[in-house]
Amino acid sequence: MKKIVLAVSLLATFLYFIECNKDKEDKSGNDIIKLVVTADKDYEVSIDGTNATLFESLPNSATEVTIKTLEISNNATVDKSVGTKIAVGTALTIVVTAENGDISTYTLTIPAHSTLNKNIRQIIITDGTNDYIGKINGKTISFPALPNYKTNVTLKKLIIPPTTIADKKVNDAVSFAGDTIIVTAKDDSAKTYTLKLTTSKSTSDFFIHIPDTNFRNKIITNSQVNNSDVSGTYIRLVALERITNISAVSGNIKSLSGVGYMKSLTSLNLHHNPLSALDFSKNSYLTYLNVVRCSLTFLNVSNISSLIELWAQENSLTSLDVSTHSSLNRLSVADNYLTAFDVSTNNNLTEFLIWGNYLTALDISTNTSLTGLWAYQNSLTALDVSIHRELNHLSVFQNSLTTLDVSTNTELTSLFLFQNSLTDLDISSNTSLTRLNIMNNSSLTCIQTATGNSILHIQKEDTQTLSTSCD
């Protein structure tokens, strides 16, 4: 029996606790939750702070509206009631008092009729994902900032007086470039509104348009780019700035638009792509660049002081500036349309390929670290390699050389001189030589060599002899 009495007592205490909590509920609510007025039909009123505005236009026959629905916070009171009438063109004050005595005063505005009223009452645009409500200030309508990659913006909602017409309708495109909306009244008077659309300045929200599909796909599949960094043909700027390496060999890329945003790019291989002009002035961290067989007529690498390897052969270049590349180690500008080329500042150059051009002279006097020179198929009449003590490969065939001094190039292992106009050649100091081609030098009959100099691979005419004495 005692247990039953105890249980009843606990239940009573629990119910009392709940009732007390009800009494402690928030007593400060003084909001209008919903407000509807009626005339020829029901109109829901928009609540913004303490402003209550009827945006929809009333028919000209309506002289007043009646409050049909007035919902407020729990336990609050209001000084107006359902059935209250408001004349068109006037405002009504509605006071809502919370249970604790806090007061909010709302102003309900019912706009007046006017056949000449050309005021836009509400405008909303959309980018397909988010809606943006316009803020109307006189004849200017501004919108919250949009992400920069949202280029397709359309009109979603436009409320104007019933006796007017607008030159834009729902679903019409809205331009970022100073678009307008013209509202015309019955008397043909008009009001022009300027729409101000802006894009976000936040770097994390900024996207870059990459128009070339194949280039874009190479970026998207890069391990340093996330799915969230891609939106259609746009890629997030911070993702582009993360990329350090791209290889797009034979990728059928026709435009490299956007590459300038890849600030961290150190290696780029574009071998065999149909590109005509490339500017890498903003990619200052590149150390390796391959643009072989890209149909280039223009190439700008002047701002890449860190460049170590540049492969630009088999293009249509007539000039190229590499004067700022003191770190350049391997350079190929072969098979272009060069008539002159300056490598005077490239002191660290070890391999230099410039074959297949239209050079008549080549100055390599400052490139003392050269180990390989490929300058064949030009129109050289002279070449000084006397200071290049580390040179081990020299290809200068199919030129117009009449003489060549290789006496100081003791590290030479390969020497290709065929189809020139040489009259004498002394290779007696080149004891490391293993490959020699001296064919098609009609005036060259005797080649001075040293005793015991054994050349494994030699190509010469039958009329040409190697001798220790060519006096």
Query: How much of the polypeptide forms β-strand, as a percent range?
Result: 25-35%
Distance between the termini: 140 Å
Write the CATH fold name of the largest domain: Leucine-rich repeat, LRR (right-handed beta-alpha superhelix)
- The coarse overall form would be rod-shaped
Number of strands: 37
Q: Provide the helix percentage.
A: under 10%
Topology of this structure?
Blueprint: H1 2-23, E1 32-38, E2 42-44, E3 46-48, E4 51-53, E5 64-72, E6 77-78, E7 85-87, E8 91-97, E9 103-109, E10 122-126, E11 131-133, E12 135-137, E13 140-142, E14 153-159, E15 165-166, E16 173-174, E17 180-184, E18 190-196, E19 207-209, H2 213-220, E20 230-231, E21 234-236, H3 237-242, E22 245-247, E23 267-269, E24 277-279, E25 288-290, E26 298-300, E27 309-311, E28 330-332, E29 351-353, E30 372-374, E31 393-395, E32 414-416, E33 425-426, E34 435-437, E35 446-448, E36 457-459, E37 465-467
Parallel strand pairs: 4-9, 13-18, 22-23, 23-25, 24-26, 25-27, 27-28, 28-29, 29-30, 30-31, 31-32, 32-34, 33-35, 34-36, 35-37
Antiparallel strand pairs: 1-2, 1-5, 3-4, 5-7, 6-8, 8-9, 10-11, 10-14, 12-13, 14-16, 15-17, 17-18, 19-21, 20-21
